[in-house]
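Field: COMPLEX_INPUT
Field: COMPONENT_COUNT = two
Field: RESIDUE_TOTAL = 592
Field: MODE = joint
Values follow.
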Amino acid sequence: MMSAHAQTAGRMVDLAALPEGAEAAIVVDRFCKSYNGRRVVDELSFSVRRGEVFALLGPNGAGKTTTVETLEGYRRPDGGSVRVLGLDPIRDAARLKPLIGVMLQQDGLYPMLRPREVLRLFAGYYRQPQPIDQLLERVGIDPGTKTICRRLSGGQKRRLALALALVGNPQLLFLDEPTAGMDPQARLATWEIIRDLKAQGVTILLTTHLMDEAERLADRVAIIDHGRLIALDTPDRLTGVDSATVVRFVAPAGLDSRALAALPGVQRAEEVRPGSYLLETAPQSMPAVLADLTAWLRDRGITLTELRVGHGSLEELFLRLTGSEMRE
Amino acid sequence: MTTIANTGQSGRAQPQPAQAAPFLRQVGAQFKAELLLTSRRGENILVTLILPVILLVFFASLKIIPVSAGSVINFLLPGILALAIMASGMVHLGISTAYERYYGVLKRLGATPLPRSGLIAAKIVAVLLLEVLQVVLLVGIALLFYGWRPVGSPGLAILVLALGTITFAALGLAMAGSLRAETTLAVANGLYLLFLLIGGGILPLDHLPAPLAALAQYLPAAAFTQSLQAALTAGAPFPGAALLTLLVWMILILAVAIRTFRWE
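Field: COMPLEX_OUTPUT
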């Protein structure tokens, strides 16, 4: 009886907090940015919910970093507007900075300081920072190391940069290509930290050009290219748009895509690169499509060099949406 | 009952929002890091402390300075002090800030609660501390080994030191905030050598070729040095022209630094 009462009371509190809790953590509204007359972000709109892990996915030069750095208060929009935690990143900078944690593409570490010294400095900017030795251990850096930052490996620098982003207990984290330069093990450890933070209710905006990173971490993924939003949805729904059934094969260039598309059950056929083909079909048609495809090739005396059947990954989705491979 | 439960629940559900440390504590943390950085870079110690001491000892001992009146040390000490201040502001502050910009440190600090004013305050206090160390060291050597005695106007000397500090620190920051790091390194060291040669701190200006001396007169180094020499010489006339020249340079360089400084 008592506990039920307390629970009800708790729910009432949640309801009372709703107006603030329901408000989006980030709102980007028709945001435009140009450099030297070249438009790098073009009428971009999206919003990030509180507590969400949101991935901006796109090739280099797609406008990811420009967008993130505008949200962090480094750049002023040429058009449209951005709001972060209900604040204007430039005008309300003093109120916003304590609430956010930032990992830029360039780590920005003092080359001559040791990891613990840099982290202690950053901890000094906040009223209630995290305990620095525990935080260093959490990101996998020995708190006692005498190595100065200049001599750390690329992956270690990245992990220290992550610790700097976390030391002030941010409500909102901006991670610009957080695992770039990390070895696979460090990457997994970083993903684990990001999942923990999400469990604690931290909102995370991350940019990446790694498809599997976006697929594994993000609640929602925005795909952008040439500064425009191309797709925005959950990873499952993005990859499931074509019922997750894609055939890719490699054969001589110049096969008749129209004839391939005319095979029974094939919804779409495309030569995405010379000699590299992609067919889309419904899951139930897949066995028949494979038989028909190989028969079609046999009739023309063509040999496959590679055949892959699988779910459409974000990578394939990107390829289809933008007509180009992801550039690393 | 409900109210009490409410308070308890909300207290647990919503932790204190993240807050910035008080301004002075942030500046204090930054100041400590600046000191650590200065001490860790050997070239800083060399150019700001060792080099001025070598210059003072070398020229005061050799007695090759063509001084027209008074003792060598009375002429030499203000000039070396001026060079030491230039080394702290222009060379040390300029080059280290240029590299912080190059490595993206300044940009990264821009995403923290530390205000720009806090960063600049910490850097200024660190440079001032270094200058106190320089003055104590150089004046101490002059007192102990060369029989120098304080004469002139200490108040004016401190004012001139302050103006010189602002001028050359601003010059260093102006370069750091607009030039590439390598360029700042080269230009700051080049200017230091130039100011050593034609700043009038070691070689009296009237021993330079007349056109060069006339030009040097209007440069900030000579203006700073001559003002300081006058302040530390008994019965010297007020260095109005030199002080005015220094003041004009200070305003000019500050304006350029503020207009051109880029954090990224």
